[in-house]
Recover the amino acids of this structure.
């Protein structure tokens, strides 16, 4: 069986390697992906239509806003699913051998001190990544993951109970849902002002600047929504996985 | 894009993939997966796909590794495969 698997891997790998010969060269301006009308429109018109220098974010949050909204919903559903499968209630917590943790700030002193110094910096940088996502690399997903990772680092260093006081289970689910409400609500606001769903130009009357700046500001709002969901879900997944759903004492 | 640099990264990636498959200690395999993610992040950053590289560094190398370590601690450390 192992030999059969090895032969299959060799054959598929050889086919893939042979197929790479037909790929356009790296950075080739004449490749099919760069020749279509859609990509040349994005490359030439993004800065005029949205005043956003980072094309990737403009495509992600504006031109393909539907996609990103439902990607956020997918993350939310994945987190809810993990909580639903792993979370256990009842008297299992009291049956745990070590009992309730009296010392909430458990762990090594050096690790805790370093963590207390590093976590604010990580969170500040994560907020910068979220807020500056339409001008530089980054955005809601990356910044949200970094914010969630800062909570995970705190839970690793100071114990899950201390982290739960900052980001409890209930709060995490509310924040995750609030992110999607921000995103979808922004689309509904477009509807209320007479545009299509997620058509940011219709928000021009209530946002500063002209129609193009309205799209730029809307990308920021939408990415904040994405970051809310991703932050809360990342921490919820970690806290459920590391305690087998009991949420009492981390790694 | 510097092709010498590419070759070095690709060789290390193949090595990391083989080690991650062969090693019996699942915690070690998880860490090698993290190394693999960082290498592919490096490759993407070098090819100019900075957004993708950023996502890979944050999600693939950062949070995925932590989540897999948490899973290893909840299950078994040694692979019987």
């Amino acid at each position: 069986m192992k030999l059969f698997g090895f032969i299959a891997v060799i054959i598929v790998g050889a086919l893939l390697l042979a197929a790479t010969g037909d790929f356009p060269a790296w950075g080739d301006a004449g490749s099919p992906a760069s020749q279509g009308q859609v990509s040349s429109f994005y490359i030439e018109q993004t800065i005029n239509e949205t005043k956003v220098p980072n094309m990737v974010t403009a495509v992600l949050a504006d031109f393909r806003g539907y996609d990103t909204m439902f990607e956020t919903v997918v993350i939310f559903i994945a987190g809810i699913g993990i909580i639903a499968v792993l979370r256990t209630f009842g008297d299992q917590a009291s049956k745990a051998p070590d009992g309730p943790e009296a010392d909430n700030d458990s762990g090594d002193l050096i690790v805790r001190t370093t963590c207390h110094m590093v976590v604010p910096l990580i969170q500040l940088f994560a907020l910068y990544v979220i807020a500056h996502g339409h001008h530089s690399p980054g955005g809601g997903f990356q910044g949200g993951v970094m914010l969630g990772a800062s909570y995970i680092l705190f839970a690793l260093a100071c114990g899950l109970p201390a982290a739960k006081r900052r980001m409890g289970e209930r709060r995490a689910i509310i924040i995750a849902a609030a992110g999607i409400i921000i995103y979808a609500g922004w689309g509904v606001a477009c509807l209320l002002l007479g545009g299509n769903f997620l058509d940011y130009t219709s928000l021009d009357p209530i946002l500063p600047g002209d129609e193009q700046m309205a799209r730029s500001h809307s990308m920021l709002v939408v990415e904040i929504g994405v970051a809310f969901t991703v932050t809360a879900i990342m921490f919820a997944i970690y806290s459920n996985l590391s305690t087998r759903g009991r949420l009492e004492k981390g790694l | 894009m510097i092709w010498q640099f590419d070759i070095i990264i690709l060789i290390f990636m193949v090595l990391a993939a083989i080690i991650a498959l062969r090693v019996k200690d699942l915690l070690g395999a998880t860490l090698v997966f993290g190394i693999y993610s960082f290498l592919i992040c490096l490759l993407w950053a070098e090819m100019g796909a900075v957004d993708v590289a950023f996502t890979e560094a944050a999600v693939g190398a950062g949070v995925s590794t932590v989540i897999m370590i948490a899973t290893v601690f909840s299950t078994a450390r040694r692979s019987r495969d």
